[in-house]
Amino acid sequence: MDSALIYVLIAVVLLILAVGALLFVRGRGGTEAPPAERTAPRVEAPPASAEPAVVEEEPAAPELEKPEPAAGRMQRLRARLARSQGSLGRGLLALIARDKLDDDTWDEIEDTLIAADVGVEPTQELVEHLRTRLRVDGVNDPEQARGILREELVSLVDPSLDRTLNAGGAAGAPGVVLVVGVNGTGKTTTVGRIARVLVAEEQTVLLAAADTFRAAAADQLQTWGERVGCETVRGPEGGDPASVAFEAVKRGSDEGLDTVLVDTAGRLHTKSGLMDELGKVKRVIEKQAPVSEVLLVIDATTGQNGLVQARVFSEVVDVTGVVLTKLDGTAKGGIVIAVQRELGVPVKLVGLGEGADDLAPFVPEDFVDALLD
């Protein structure tokens, strides 16, 4: 075969193969174009808006506490006293209501009174008066005997004493109430309660935290001030109590306030150095204004020990009134009579619990009626 013919045949075969390949590829759908680049959709930012104006509101003023009216406090305290102290009065009533009041019965009456912390001398006085009246009047009726017992007890408590709280000043100076007593009697709480009553009577009051030795005493008093709406002058812990008292009374004078209540350290009455310091506090205060009231706070449950405290404090700061706290519970009640006889000054306030309103003016008739209820 001619070589030229061979080349022609080869070319034809190659052409046929090329055409076949082309047809095969087209039958499969052809080649795919490369995917187009994908771009993220354009997100338009929201239109900027002006930031809302911040309005700062004034903090709401704290709601100040107000005490229960005096009449309500007295009624509630009388009811509590009657529940806790009735043993004294009821015991006496049971004894004098006996058909026969012989010597043994009168001895029992004396023992009952002495056990109730009335004291020996007041007890003897009461028994003598009762024996005379019951014998002379020939009393056999229990109700009549109760009436005589009430009269004699009221007389023994002495309603003639002036029990007014002298919290006001004179000649432009504030009244200064110095509150003294040993630790644990409720002294700082008493200061807060008195402030509560005075502020409710629209008096301007300043507290002086002159108990600089007891941890957190100034904090406790300042908390009371915030509750009732008056400020507190305080110094560094362990600082000079007289300096704190002086600054408080000076500020009270400068600002024309009505009353400065001074809470003193709960010093032990057996330590002469501390008692001398209490005398210093009083002297320093009186460089600014006279002390109008010195209240001695006594825990009524301490009984005759309270009389020892009363005697020593009175010698140092000339006590003008007594606050008896914790008169409920185990207190005997007769301490009211004994402490007044010991000091010659009246019980002006009594406390019967831990509540803010558990402090009220002492009223002899109410006290005796509570004992006899």
Automatic annotation (TrEMBL):
Compartments (UniProt record): Cell membrane; Cytoplasm
Q: What exactly does this protein do?
A: Involved in targeting and insertion of nascent membrane proteins into the cytoplasmic membrane. Acts as a receptor for the complex formed by the signal recognition particle (SRP) and the ribosome-nascent chain (RNC).
Location of the region described as Disordered in the Swiss-Prot/TrEMBL record: 30-71
Is Nucleotide-binding tagged as a keyword? yes
One Pfam family cited in the UniProt record for this chain? SRP54
Q: What are the Low complexity biased-composition ranges?
A: 42-53
The top EC class is: hydrolase
Q: What assembly does the database describe for this protein?
A: Part of the signal recognition particle protein translocation system, which is composed of SRP and FtsY.
Q: What is this protein called?
A: Signal recognition particle receptor FtsY
Could you tell me which residue ranges the SRP54-type proteins GTP-binding domain spans?
A: 346-359
Family the entry assigns: Belongs to the GTP-binding SRP family. FtsY subfamily.
Q: Which residues bind GTP?
A: 181-188, 263-267, 325-328
Tell me where the transmembrane regions lie: 6-25
SMART domains for this protein? AAA, SRP54, SRP54_N
According to UniProt, the reaction catalysed is: GTP + H2O = GDP + phosphate + H(+)
**Keyword field:** Cell membrane, Cytoplasm, GTP-binding, Hydrolase, Membrane, Nucleotide-binding, Receptor, Transmembrane, Transmembrane helix
Q: Which organism is it from?
A: Solicola gregarius
Recorded hits in PANTHER family, A to Z, give: SIGNAL RECOGNITION PARTICLE RECEPTOR SUBUNIT ALPHA
GO biological-process terms attached to the record: SRP-dependent cotranslational protein targeting to membrane
Q: Name one GO cellular component term.
A: cytoplasm
